[in-house]
Amino acid sequence: MSSEQKYWNRRHFMYGLGAGIGAIALSSLLGCESSPKIDKAPKNPLESKPPMLIPKAKSVIFITLEGGPSHIDTFDPKPALEKYHLSKFERKGEQFSAMSSGNRYIVQSPFKSRKVGESGADMSSPFVHLPKVADDICFYRGGQAKSVNHPTAMYQLNTGNQFGGDPAFGAWTAYGLGSVNDNLPAFVVLPELAFPQGGSANWSNGFLPAQFQGTTFRPSGTPILNIEPPPGLSRYHQRKSIDLIQAFNEKHSRLHPEEDELRARMANYELAFRMQMEVPDIIDLDKETDKTKALYGLDEPATHDFGRKCLLARRLVEKGVRFVQMYSSGWDSHDFLERAHGNLIKSIDKPIAGLITDLKRRGLLEETLIVCSGEFGRTADNGIREGGIAYGRDHNPDAMAIWLAGGGVKAGHTIGATDELGQEAVEVVHPISDLHVTLLHLLGLDDNKLTYLHGGRYKQLSQFGGKLIKDLLA
To answer: Looking at the domain assignment, is residue 255 inside a domain?
Structure first.
């Protein structure tokens, strides 16, 4: 009996039965399925993989406006709200009467809207810089979510599953395409100081191997702590130390082949060692010119923080990171809409316009897909609060503000429409799952083939399949 065999217990014995004739026969049958499956990771799970389709984009920058921005007060104005302002609102039948007879009422937008760019896109007045790049953007008004609750809606937007536990979109992207740069994570997240509702499950690897989860960068200070080795420790000695740890881990891993967390930790040790060579250069924004930093608003207090994220996102995709997700929080405006949305729009307006401009002038916009969305939209109405009227908006999964740029989308177009009050999408209507399928398609991935065997069946981002939104494609 070998030194390894003597440690076997009943659990290892039962696990070992999986190598029997029955298991081999089952594996053979599964291997004969007609549709190809990606269910066996290569030795390096993050090595670059060929796309399934001809890709339009190589990477994604996903701007998540957590809390649910109001489409009515940003990119989908509703003049009819002026007619019904402060009238009673009844969800069924859309009937209105005097405000005094009910506690829900219609409120008009506090912002004026105007047509911008040659495309005539709609934007509310707080947007000052984004109109300059309006013709590079595709505005989509037909999206619909399923949940009115923030955590479940966030999970659906990020993972396709309202209840969490599934891989994030960025994890699926890393799983399907791997990493272009071996020295960097394939999926990077730039959160706020407080994580979004639902927490880190929004960028989880779910049931995929742990290597595909998102790597978070800190929102202030040094994005990654301890990226520099301690004084007196050379890379040679660090390499020898990691090799020793990996040797112990490898021996332990052979005894526990069913545990993928250890293999993920081993891979992360190697990635962290390589990141020490490249990350310090990427996160050093001082190497950018003053003109570039001003383009992103780093010289202004209101735009500095989000501008920093946008500039870091550009540097990351420039170096080969597949998926960068950044968060802007606070869009849950149930009251004080003018102040809340006004300040938030100001904080993202210049940085996003700068990001699009910078990518375009560097020749990166065509291969970088930018997506901007909240977890749902807002209603035309809100309630009367104690002490007076609260000008705000409630949660609305039936109509959302979504826009896309670069990466093969139909720039300079507005696709889909909502009804007179912005309560519901009525043209080119699609669920979030269809948006996911479309984004994967632009990356060269087929949702029906990008699968992973888990819980007895092959699972995919769209859950049970979705439709391509062809209207969004250039």
So the answer is: no
DSSP string, 153-187: HHHHHHHS-TTS-SPPHHHHHHHHH--S-TTS-SE
Query: Helices 337-361 and 301-318, interaxial angle, to 10°?
Result: 40
Please say whether the beta carbons of 453 and 35 come within 8 A.
no
* pLDDT digits 0-9 by tens, 328-342: 999 999 989 999 999
Tens-place pLDDT, residues 422-463? 999 999 999 999 999 999 999 999 999 999 999 999 999 999
- Domain holding 294, by residue range, is 45-77+110-224+283-472
Residue 343 has pLDDT above 60, yes or no: yes
77 neighbors 109 (Cβ within 8 angstroms):
yes
How many folded domains does the chain comprise? 1
CATH number of the domain at 142, please.
Answer: 3.40.720.10
Q: 245-259: per-residue pLDDT in tens?
A: 777 777 777 777 766
Residue 9: how many other CB atoms lie within 10 Å: 8
- Residue 7: inside a domain: no
Mean pLDDT, residues 334-357 taken together? 96
Identify the CA nearest to 332 among candidates 376, 372, 373.
Answer: 376
Report helix, strand or coil for 151. helix
114 belongs to a structural domain: yes
Burial class (CB in 10 A: 0-12, 13-18, 19+), 366: middle
294 with 239: CB under 8 angstroms?
no
Determine, yes or no, domain membership for 199: yes
Beta partners for 122? Answer: 115
Q: Give kind and range of the element (H or E) at residue 174.
A: helix 169-177
